[in-house]
What we know:
Layout: H1 2-9, H2 14-31, H3 69-75, E1 80-85, H4 90-106, E2 110-114, E3 131-139, E4 143-144, H5 149-160, E5 173-180, H6 189-200, E6 204-205, E7 210-213, H7 219-236, E8 251-255, E9 276-285, E10 294-301, E11 315-319, H8 324-334, E12 343-348, H9 355-358, E13 365-366, H10 367-374, H11 383-389, H12 396-407, H13 409-416, H14 423-431, H15 441-447, E14 454-457, E15 468-475, E16 477-480, E17 483-489, H16 491-497, H17 530-534, E18 537-543, E19 557-562, H18 567-581, E20 589-595, H19 605-615, E21 619-625, H20 636-642, H21 644-653, E22 657-663, H22 664-683, H23 687-699, E23 703-708
Parallel strand pairs: 1-2, 1-3, 3-5, 5-6, 5-7, 19-20, 19-22, 20-21, 22-23
Antiparallel strand pairs: 3-4, 8-12, 9-10, 9-18, 10-15, 11-14, 11-18, 12-13, 16-17
Amino acid sequence: MASLLTLQTQPAGTADYVALTFLSLVGATFLSRGILWDQPDPYRHLLFERPQLKNGGTAASQDQQTRNIARRMEETNSSIVVFWGSQSGTAESFAHRLAREITLRFGQTTLTADLSDYDPSSVAEIPASKLAIFILSTYGEGDPADNTVDFWDWLNSNDRNQEKPKKQFSDLRYFAFGLGNSNYKFYNKVIDRVVEVLDTHGANALLPVSKANDANGTTQEDFISWKEKLFTFFRESLGFKQQEMVYQPTITVDSDDTIEASALHRGDPRHASNPTAIPISGIRQLFEPTSDRHCLHIDLDISSTPDLVYKTGDHLAVWPSNPDQEVNLLLQMLGRANEADTPLNIAAIEGADGEDISRKVLSPTTLLVLLRHYLEITAQLPRDILATLAPFAPTSEAKTFLNSLATNKEAYADFTKRNHLTLARVLAASSGAAQWTSLPLSYILETLPSLQPRYYSISSSSVVTPRKIALTVLVLSTPLADNAAVSIPGLTSTYLLSLADTPTPNNKNAVLPTYTNTLLPVTNPSPSSETTKTNRKILAHLRRSTFKLPRLTTAPLILIAAGTGLAPFRAFLSERRQLLKIGRDIGPMILFFGCRRPDEDFIYKAELDEMKAAFGDKLSLVTAFSRDPGSKRAYVQDAIIEHKETLVDLLVEQRGNLYICGRAGMAREVERRVTGEILQGVKGWAEKESEEWVRGIKRRNKWQEDVWG
């Protein structure tokens, strides 16, 4: 019997072996559940995170009730919704300003909506009894803002997938305003495309689309002009009755002395990807002492922050602090200098559109922290804001002064040519020594934009120095048009200059602003103190970039830069030099670099000379100087024409990669010269053929741009 049982339990053939193997796999699979499979997805939360959080946006509301915007409008009894798509915060600020003003002027309950908070398809469900307003920015090469990407992709996909357009937006009545810069080729592409698709699918645009052009410095005035047309339409075509604006807060700001100091937020980051305090290992000046400008090379040590890993070509976002002088002046003008450190609780008022406003900051905190770390108090106040400020004026003269500037475009333009109108300076200019004790803190929080980081191209290679980051920062200072004695300093670049061992202002007779950062150990080091020098830190976070070297190391490179646009190319060249050192073959490279004068602002000249010697005939350096005495004024776009045969050989014949870094206007001019004088002139191509060829290599990422302004 035993032998029979043994015989019966042994596999008798191939089929039995297959069956046993199958049963074993099933058993192992079941037993490994939760260990090898069916584990919680550690990245599941990203499905519910606002897209702009990847690049440092504000944190999403934790109590979002619905992702259907039509349903949300019903829940809040809102008759109008203002959608915003914002990369730098301007469109978001416009949306909140407009929504509050519509509510106060016309009594129409108005909701602001971050496009990433709602399902794109639900926009089509907004009934004809309600209105929608779109305020959307375009940045880069016609790209939507991060929080607009889902709506943008859905809109375009939905449009492409319908052979015959459906009238799915037939109930949607809307207005549209776009923010862009005509220095970029695809000026206001996002708002144009959104309007095109909405109209194709039956939406009713109640006014023609309006656009702001930052290239002219008129974004604020363009917005105000459009807003006036919008309000005229409200009155004359929709029958809305306009009433005198009476301020109604959407948030509460209450002092509470019982809050422990340890519970207060001191300027903590307000987004998911928290910035890191990064030690500064060194700062040196790049411009010659004869220059009246400053450019900084900043070395950062990330060896103590293992989670911070950058790649060559990435950007670093640096969070600034507001200068002490501006903070103190505003505290003085508000009559709240003695309340600067009083604990404050900030909360949205139920039923009011204050949720996004209250998310500007972390509560509880103090007024000093609000003004130093959370609010953009150095920005110039727009003209229409002056009208909302006037009712709180401490004197009748101050009220008249503000109203005169608010209602007279020419008077405002003339005054701002001679005066930098920050909130503190507006209060001082209008009232003298009289303090604005009746100006609510809630108004300041609702009106001033959030302090935003500034982005810098990393000028070091992650291959060469993986635990060190280098930045190349031009210190900005813009003199007023009719008052050269007064300059508007760049907020972040001046802050970084103050951290230098021996900081000096651009104007040798000026006094450099001081900065106090409660988040970091030391921000204003004494040159005589070695301890404080080593303790200098900045608050920053990484932003990934697509501006990358080709994987093929033998691919030819054409690098075109002006000024600090040289930063990422310093990193590119460092990386290729390292490849050369380890015996790898590299392709030919030509660097076009432009600046004002070779004896003043030719940054990294010694390094470039050393690299040229190391690379030999693999690297050509072509310079263009725009203000060199005794020489003809030249820019990089002129220099490429002088080497057009070389460019055609590297770019077309050898299928190289072209990179541009610098001002958007320069990049646009370079493209015009390449498509026209170079491809058409040297290759003999027709205009359409050369333009299509350039579009093709851009699609294949063989033509990349990292531009601004």
